[in-house]
Structure formats: C-alpha cells, structure tokens
Protein 1
Amino acid sequence: MAENIIINGLVLSGVYALLAIGFSLIFGVARIVNLAHTAFYMLAAYLIYSLAVTAGLNLYLSIFLAIVIVVITGMLSYRLVIARIRQHEATTLIVTIALAVILQEALLKGFGGTPRSVPKIISGSTEIFGVAVLNQQILTFGIVLLLLVATWLFLMKTRTGVAIRSTAQDREVANLMGINVPRMEMTTMAISAALAAVAGALVAPLLVLTPGMWTHPLVMVLAIVVLGGLGSLKGSLIGAFILGFAENLVIFLAPSGSYLKTSVALTIMIIVILIRPEGLFGVVFEEERG
Amino acid sequence: MKWLTKGAIILLIACLVLAAVSCGEEEEVKELRIGVIGPMQFQHGQHHWAGATLAADEINAAGGIQVGEDSYTVTLVQVDSNELVSVTDASSAAEEAITLDNVDVLMGTIRSEAALAVQEVAMDYETIFMVCGSSTVEMSNKVADDYDRYKYWFRITPVNDLYLGQLNFLLVGMVAQKIGAELMMPPKLAVMAEKAAWTESIVAAAQAYLPPQGIEVIGVWQPSDKATDVTAELTAIEDAGANMIMTALSGTVGIPYARAWEELEIPAASVGINVMAQADDFFENTGGFGNYETTLNTLARDVELTEMTLPFIDAFIEETGEMPTYNAGTYDAIYILKEAIERADSVDADDIVVELENTDYDGVAGHFVFDDNHDVTWGPGYITALGVQWQDGELVGIWPPADGSWNGVVYEGIVDYELPSWVVEYWTQ
C-alpha cells in the first residue's frame, strides 16, 4: 500500500505543482490573484481536443498551437482587462472569476456538456514497484519536473528572470532601477498562462473534459498557494506535495470516504493557516518584499 | 356627401361585426403543454427532448389526444434544468415552466437531488410530474407518506434504486458465477459507487446481502460523481485483491474510470451501473478503452423487449444518430399520458392521475404498470431492464441470460457475457 500512496501521490502532486507555480508566479510579481488560471488550463485542453480530434491535426502540432493560443489569450486578458483594475484586489478577484465563468459558459455552448477525451501522447501502463502506472502519468511527472527546474533556472539565472524577481520584491525600486515593470508583468502573465496550458496538454488525456473541469483544480491551487504562502514558489511546490499526498492517503486509508479527499486536504490547509497565518513560507516572502 | 359618409361608417361597422363573428366561429386550437425538463446542454437532456419530440410528432400527426369531441395538440416546452452544473437551477426552471410557460405536465430530470426539488415544485402547483431519469426511492416514499400532496408524481425510467440494487446483484451474481467457473476462485468484490443519494441504498444493500451469498465485499470506494481521475482508487482496489468491481456511477466519473480500468489492466471484472457506458459515444470518449465494461441499461440496439422497441430505436437513431438512453423514456411517458387522458376523457390533473394509476401499457422499455407508490413495476412480465456489455467496441445485451435462467425471461438478441481477457490472464497465470 505504501508504494501505491507514494507513486500516486507523486503523480498527483506534480500536476498540482505545475498549476500552482504558474498561479503563484503572477501573484508574486503582479500581486494578481488570477482566478481564471485553471480556466486557461481548461481552454488548452479543449483547444487540443478541437485541433487534434475534431480538425484531425497532428497531436504535437495541436498541443503547440493550443499553448500559443492560451498564452495570447492570457496576455490579452491581462492587457485588456486585468491590468486596468489590478489596483483593486477585490475587483480583480471578481473579474478573473467572471472571465473563467464566461469561458466555461462559452465552452458549454460550443461543445455541450458531453464529456470529451483527448488522445494520449503515449498510451499503456508500466509497473513500478508493483504499482501499475499509466505511461502518460510517468511522462507528465517527468515533464513537470523538467518544467519546474526550467522555471527555477529561468528566474535565477537569466536577466529577465532577475528582473521578474526584482519586480516581485519591490515594483517601485525595480522601476527606479530601469526595469520595465509592465513588460515584466506581461512576461510573467505569459509564462503563467503557458504553464497552465502545458498542464492542460499533459493532464487532459488523463482526465475527462467537461466545461466544469477548472473548478476543482482552482480550489486545490488556492489551497496550495495559501498553504505554501502566497507568492512563494517554494511554498507552492511543497504545498502541492502535501495536499497531493493528503488526497491519496484518504483514498487508500479511508476508501469509503474518498469523496472527502478534497475536504481533508483543505482541512489540513486550514489547520496550517491557523498555526501559521502567513502560510509555510509566507514570512520569508514578505521579508523578501521588504 | 353626408349620406356617403354615413354609408361608409355603416359599412365599416358591418365589416367589423362580421370579422368579430367569423373570429368567434374559428375553431379554438386546444393544446396540452408538456414541459420536458432536463440538462439540455448534456446528452441526458437532449435524449429527454428527442424522445418526447418523436412521441409528440407521432401523436400530433395522428390527430392529437382525443378528449370527448375535442382534439388536443401536444406542445412541447423545452425546460433547461442545468442540474448537472447547478442542482439548484432545476427547481427554478420548473417553477418558471409552470407559472410562465403554463405547462400542464412536467417530465424528465436526471439527478436525484434535482428531481426531488422539482417534485416539490410540481406538487405545490398540483402539476403532474413524470420522472424519466432519477431512481431515488425517496420520491415514491413521499407518495406513500402523503398521497394527497404527492399523487401527481410518477416514475417512468429507470426502476427505483431498490430494484436497481437487486438488478445489480443479479448481474454481480452472473459475473461471480463466471469467475467461479472460469477462474476457479471465490469472488472478491470491491464497490465503486459515486457519493450521491441514489447510491446509498445500493451500497448498504451490497454490504448486507452479498456476503451471505458467498461474495466477499472487500471494500467500498466512493469518489465524487464529478471526479476526473480515479486511478488511485483503482490501484487501491487492485492492491486489496479484488477480482470484481461493482459500479454505481452516473456522472462523468464513469469515463475516466472505465478508461483507466482497461488501460491499467486492473484484474477485476467491472459490472454494475455506469451511465456513461450506456451511451453510443462512450468508446469514443474513453479513447477506445472500456472494452468489457458491463452496465445495466434500459435498451440495447438489437434486443427486442416489445414490438415497439426496435422501431423506436431505429427512429431515434435516424433522428439523432445516437442509441437512446433511459432518458428517452419521455417517449413512453407521453404515450402513457395520452392513454390516461383519453381514458379519463379529461385534462384535469386529478382525473388524469386516477387513470395513470390504472396504466397497463406495452411501451418501448417493456410492460408498464405503476405500483401503489407510483413507481414503475420491475420484474418478469413488467419492466425488466437489461444488462449490456461493450464487446469489441459494440454495446450488446447480455442479461437476462439467453438460456432463460432468470424466471424464464428470454429476449431476442441477447449474447453471452465475457470476462475481460486481462482478468482471465492475470488470475490463471
């Protein structure tokens, strides 16, 4: 049973981490709680379905096009809507959730509620320590690790990454130092949307596509970033693993209560927040912001 | 000129009087307004609507519903309950249909939670409500508890969840026998039931009644009906040593379940209720996985339950391109209603209820008779339902067994149940 919990926990946590890092990035840099983040993930999944299944395009080309379209959509929504109201945090929350609901309703109108499936990049399964794991899950986990490392290297080792981190720490000082803050925020939005789209491309073949598929991941992502400390990438990563493993523990240890897995994970988040209101790494982040 | 003006006025008045008289003489169009309520963006609601439309078109083409010397045209009103997205939307949609669209009868719904809410609204307005989608026995219990309020409620499809439980056990028993005969081992059953009102009695009954019949229940897994991934549950079931899974899944979870079940080659035969596996596009939606998935169903393409079954299936497929699901029971519902109205010779709801209670009708899904609680009767000679299995990408009927071992009931078109090849391979290696 332990092998099952570890392997399934790793796979699920990886997916949550990919979504949470993108969400956390845009909050850390632009202080925007983008509740439409998982709607971008859903949009990518439906675009891949439309391009690969309906239009019959090559799967890899469909994934590439879907990521590009989602990045453009993310940037447009930032430029045309979010950037104009970002000073008002509550308004931003409402507007981004409205964007997500509009997208949901548009997909419901366009595709109906019938569940859809996206073809896998690789099918079949492999036994790891006696546990059957889908090859697509293994691929997903591998790419998630690569993307997390790539994101970290980008933020730590490139000029743009340093500029983004500077903007995250102090917008005004970054501005005085000659950093083009709006451009950094737009770049971050593009990266954030791209991470959501990649998550959609990787995970969509494992799930079923419905116009409501963005809501559960959004709840989990919010819980993860609050648990890890809003805006902290390290915190998001660790939060993703804590909640991913918590969900799997419920499935294996209390099977008849497996529908409660999300509630249990959220309860853990509440307990941590009661003890550390700033989240696991929130203080460090706040200190970084000066 | 004066006489000319007077003449023109008199002529005008005469024309108006004539027009008024001729309008009064025009035969008044009488209509019976039926609200078809379901999630219209989903296949469930679309099948509600398609079944109702077929029946209404046929009835109207044949002259409508006869009440005395009057002929009533059936007018359908589409009511989007949106219940699969938001359960609470269903009751407001029902209220709007009754109060604004002036429907005389409501039929449809799918989610028990939504159907229960719609039932309350319909009863408040003393409007007949014929369920074509929800199985919860809570609805019929209300008729027993407070007949005067709930007498306007009837269930057409599916049979109630107590009967569904028994049907599930019959299918489970058939598969358990197969496991005993082919794998030479006792059945070990895992229950995979979504957390919903309709599965509660099924889960409880499985735990109570299957062990005395030699079927060990090794665990119950209850994901959300909207879960998008159940690979962890499936690997837990494999880890627990199950060789059978009894399903009770009505939501979209049925697709990732069946897909992962075959792709992971979980060594347990899957049997029970998986509503997603009842639809034609199941195999497409699972990406070609889910072969051998076995589920209860109301209809199967080549299985003739009554003389009406195959012509209806053909007409439905011609109209929609899809095999009808149990939600298309609106077809039977409208014909049952028509017969009751014509027997009652009235469109008054109380009069219709009396005649609905006397229903004795051969429909598409079998022979309809309502019990004292207005539930459709299940059993040999009544509505039996079917067991169906995906074999080589085709949905075929596998229960009642072709040998007539279930109370002598035999339908044309039934084939033998097959154990999944990977299950046989795993346990015989």
Protein 2
Amino acid sequence: MNTILRIIEAFKNFLLEIGELSDFAGRFFKEVFKPPLEFKEFLRQCYNMGNRSLLLVGVTGFIIGLVFTLQSRPTLQQFGAVSWIPAMVSVSIIREIGPIITALICAGRIGSGIGAELGSMRVTEQIDAMEVSGTNPFKYLVVTRILATTLMLPILVFIGDGVALLGSFLVENLKGDVSLLLYFTQVFNHLEFFDVIPSTIKTFFFGFAIGLVGCFKGYYCKKGTAGVGLAANSAVVFSSMLLFIIDFIAVFVANIFYDV
Amino acid sequence: MSNMIELNSTNTKAIVVIKDLKKSFGENCVLDGFNLELFQGENLVVMGKSGSGKSVMIKCLIGLEEPDSGSIEVMGKDIKQLSREALDELRTEVGFLFQGSALYDSMSVRENLEFPLRRHTKKFGVIKDTTPLVMEALESVGLANTMNLMPNELSGGMKRRIALARTLILKPKIILYDEPTTGLDPITSKEILMLMVSVQKKYNTSSIIITHDVDCARMISNRMILLIDGINYAEGTFEALLSSKDPKVQAFFK
C-alpha cells in the first residue's frame, strides 16, 4: 500500500514539476523580446557553451563513427554489402545517432553546468542581489542561456556529425582502401533532404530543452550546497528524459510527412 | 505583551511604514503582526534571535518575499500594488547589503558596480563612461584600488565594502543592512560600522540594520526594535532598552 502511495506521490510531484517548467518556459517567451537584449552576455554564453563542449563532442563523434563502422563492417561483408557502409553510417548518424548523442553529452556538460552555476548564485544570494537592484535576473541569466543552448546545439551537432563521418572514413580507408572523395561521394549520393532537415530542426528543440531545464533547476535551487548538487544532477536527469521524449515526437511527426 | 518604550525622535516623516505584517512558512509562523516605522535620516536597528524573522521582514520590505498579510509602504508607495516595472524603479531607491555580500563572482569589481548602473537608464540616462561613478562609490568605501580585482581576490571585509559600494552607486535613499558585521573580526566589524555611519552622513540615507550584535546596535542605532515571537516586542533607544527590566529584553544585553 505504501509503495502505491509513494508512486502516486512521485507522479503528482512529476506533474507539478512539468507545470512549473511550462510556467518557466512561458516566462521565457514573455521576456525574450523585451529590452534590454543582453547581447554581450548572450555571446559570452554562446562562446562558453560552444567552445568548451567542442572537444568533447568532437572526440565522442569521432569514436562513434569509428566504432559504428568497425562493428557493422563484418556483418555487411557477409552479405557483400560493404559498399553500403558510407550510406548506412551517414544516414544513421545524421538522422539519429549524431543529434541524440551530442544532445546527451551537452545535457551532461552544459545542462549540469547551468544548473550548478545558477544554483550557486541562488544559494549565495547573487540572484536576489540582482533582483533587489531592479535588474531582472531572469532576463540576464535565464533568457541568454536558453537562447545560447538553442543556437549552439545545432552547430555542435553539425560538427559532431562531420567528425563522426571522418571517423567512419578512417576505418573504410584503412580496411577497404576507400578514398576520401569516394567515401563522401557515397555519403552525399544517399543523403536526402528529408534526412537532414527534420534532424536539424529537432536539435533546436534539444538545445532549448537543455537550456530550459538547466536554468529551471538552478534558478529555483533549494538553499544549501546539497541543493546545488541536486540542481546540477536533476538538470541532467530531467533534460535527458526530455530529450528522448522530444526525439520520439520528432521522429513520429517526421514519419507522418515521410509516409505522405 | 508588548513592551513599547517611547520613541524620542525629532524626525516626523516616516519613509517606511510596515503595518501588521504576517508571514508563515508552512506551520512555522515567523512574523505575527510586526509593525515598523523608519523615519527620514535615522538608523533603525532590528535585533532578534537567529530565526526570529528579521531577514524575512526586510526581504518582504524589498519584495523578495511575499507577506501573507499586512501592508508595507516604502516612500509612500504600497509595494503590494506596484507593477513589476514600478517595483524595479522603487528598488533603485532602496539599497540592500546582503549578509554574505552577494558579489557576482563571474564579474570584476568594476563590472559588479556597473551592472545595476547600466540597466537603469531611466534614472541615470545612458552612461557612456561609468568610471567616475564607479570611482566615487569605491572611494566612499576606501577601496579605490580594487577596480579590476575579482571577488575571489578580496577578503571578507573588502567584499562587504564592495557590496556597500555597489549599493551606493544607485544613490539610494534607504539602505537595508542584513547582518553587516556577521563573520567579520572585531576590528573589521568596527571599520564596517564606521563606514556605515560615514555613508549615512555623506549620502543622507536612512537605514534599517538587522543584527544580533550588541556592539553594532550600540554604535550605530538611533532607535532599536526587538523582534521577539514575531512582533516588535520592545522599541526605543539603545540606552532605554538596556535599562529595561523585562527579562526577555535583558537577555539580549547579557
């Protein structure tokens, strides 16, 4: 009985949190077009998020491309379909693996960073200090960060995809003596408009979700150092969950158009 | 039963009036009908035990906490009735010095001071060169040479001074101090108190000082309020309260 009550309570809390998050998103849309635009802070956040995540995204993308090709090669070889590797790898990476893996990395790297930073600002009363000086901390801290993640994630995904294909090419070059030109001709021959556009659109939503959840968790962080840790941690967990939900919806919607 | 001691003040114009303020957190009733009047140019010390609701009271005053009931008037404006924009405008007239200084740690001292200045173009206009204003505020707190330092390069006392400079840069009429000497050694505490007195003289501000430091109250107060059980239990000058026979009042001075 107790377990059931606990599950009901947890579900209730989850729904409440979704409600508060929607409220927070609503406030973002209300504030986003209001002056001042805080352009300098927005650029600083873009630089921080993009530049500092680039190496991690690049290395992960390269390894994924490399491993994916290495693992697929023996099976495709059995069917005499090795020449399909560039097409198969590029479609998989660009449509699904690249965006979701990069987004998950950024949820860990950027989302937790935002949660911890805003959380510690809340705990040390820096956000209150902005509030009492009448300077709208929401605009300066939240709006700039959400806009930065929304813009930077598609760029990081684009770079991650490119590096993953380079990793895949490296395997093909070493094992099958495929040239760079041949590999990428194969890739672009098989990629279609439909492979690129929906996956690019969904990365904007991924970026928005990561920024929104990170800011939400940090901005309303409970007092104390434990609260900061919890804000960072729950920012990653909650945004990762949200990424999969958005991904499911995006694929579902895209497939409706694809079937037509 | 409240133990009010007659206020001996020649000032008559109250610029902050709090009436019957009530605030609870769940079952815990923190303020239970608190009243306060702050007169032009005075230093009002509010003393109380830890957790008695002193900080909650000034946070209600500046709109950081929403009271359950009661009214708060700051410079003739009921803060409950103000729009977000009007409240932000009023906040430029009310400085707040936080217990932990609350300096923005990703910004230099200069940026900390410029931050509110650049965003209040209604009050100050668009300022192309903020250096003279930043220097003036830093000189007021005796730290003119710290402009390019980061907060993590400052000592506790210096942080408190810079936070005061950040408050002063908006030229407020009222300053709220939340435990201004907590966590500082006696010498630095005394320096901060002297600074508060000199700031009041220079800028002609009125102040509410939240503290449980008796020395602070002795040095700086024109008038005191003892916050006990959520109400203004006793009120008067430091000397008047010191000579009170009420055991609850006496407990603060032992």
